[in-house]
Design goal:
With 323 residues, this protein is an alpha+beta fold. It is built from 9 helices and 12 strands. Strand 9 (286-292) and strand 10 (297-298) form a beta hairpin. The chain starts with a strand and ends with a strand. Bound molecules: aspartic acid.
């Protein structure tokens, strides 16, 4: 019997202790702990890695602290476009949705694609129609709204005109003098993901996001692209967060498993090379979480912080934020 384990992330970026107050830090820690405990219970009951990561990401989408589902960031046009993916390492079945605007839980739509479709990736209105036919919940765009995200978007448009990593936008806001800033230092959010190894040694990964703040309409990041922001096979399960374009160009999540398979690298070294060497070489910022069949877990990031945690069945959950 394998010692089952789940790891989660809530996004990476400019997350510093100096910009966080104790109450908000506690909120994040408790949210991460709650999600880890739910995943841990599924694994302890003999559930699959696939079910554990799907449920963990669904819970993270429900939490407005993170940039996925409720609490998603805004596009340049002030709209919401969400991406999600899920992959089963045991079968290499995968499902994903991109640019969806009306789904309460994009990860459940991705899972429905995995379970019930011959296809892997659906986009836009077709993804929503597929999800609706599967009985999944549609919501009005206002469902995703949070005041903090909205203010963050306005600041990103005004200050830089560029698309920003969620946590970097929050940090930019935090640089403003106290009292003048609608998005203060304690407003930090993030893309979410989970990886797990179940008691049979099967692996799975799931990732979900609102993307980067102030992105162009129609932009799709790494999250729903199998191999870029989400990947699982019999070597490793990987979920990524960061500047999506560079994760696409390095095929980051797949590269972790590929280096293990072809170069015989251990999980930790394969992940380190992707996050600390290959991504920075093209300006990529962010991190990833990864697990292998032996239950080894690694959570590297090249930013100031990454919301993250690990829970092994039968052990206390372990949550961290800063570097
Ligand atoms: N990787 C995501 C994207 O580019 C953003 C993030 O991880 O915060 O859409």
């Amino acid at each position: 019997m394998q010692a089952a384990v789940i790891a989660i992330h809530g996004g990476a970026g400019t997350i510093t202790r100096a910009a966080m107050d104790a109450a908000r830090e506690r909120e994040y820690i408790e949210a991460l702990q709650h999600v880890l405990q739910a995943g841990q219970r599924i694994l302890a009951d003999g559930g699959s890695a696939l079910d554990a990561v799907t449920e963990a990401v669904r819970l993270l989408e429900e939490c407005p602290l993170f940039n996925a589902g409720k609490g998603a960031v805004l596009t340049h046009a002030g709209t919401y476009e969400l991406d999600a993916a899920v992959m089963d390492g045991a079968t290499r079945d995968a499902g994903a949705v991109a640019c969806v605007t009306r789904l309460r839980n994009p990860v459940l739509a991705a899972r429905a694609v995995l379970d019930h479709s011959e296809h892997v990736l659906f986009a836009g209105a077709g993804a929503e129609a597929f999800a609706q036919a599967q009985g999944l919940e549609l919501v009005p765009p206002g469902y995703y709204f949070t005041q903090a995200r909205h203010d963050q978007w306005q600041r990103a448009r005004g200050n830089t005109g560029m698309a920003l990593l969620d946590h970097d936008a929050a940090a930019l806001a935090a640089q403003q003098p106290q009292g003048t800033d609608p998005l203060d230092a304690d407003s930090k959010f993030g893309t979410v993901g989970a990886v797990a190894c179940d008691s049979r040694g099967n692996l799975a990964a799931a990732t979900s996001t609102g993307g980067v703040t102030n992105k162009q309409v129609g932009r799709v990041g790494d999250t729903p692209l199998i191999g870029a922001g989400c990947y699982a096979d019999d070597m490793a399960a990987v979920s990524a967060t960061g500047t999506g374009e560079m994760f696409i160009r390095t095929v980051a999540a797949h590269d972790v498993a590929a280096q293990m398979r072809y170069a015989g690298l251990p999980l930790e070294e394969a992940a380190r090379r992707v996050v600390m060497e290959k991504l920075p070489a093209i300006g990529g910022r962010g991190g990833l979480i990864a697990v292998d069949r032996a239950g080894n877990v690694t959570l590297p990031f090249n930013t100031e912080g990454m919301y993250r945690g690990v829970a092994r069945v039968g052990e206390a959950v372990n949550v961290s934020i800063y570097g």
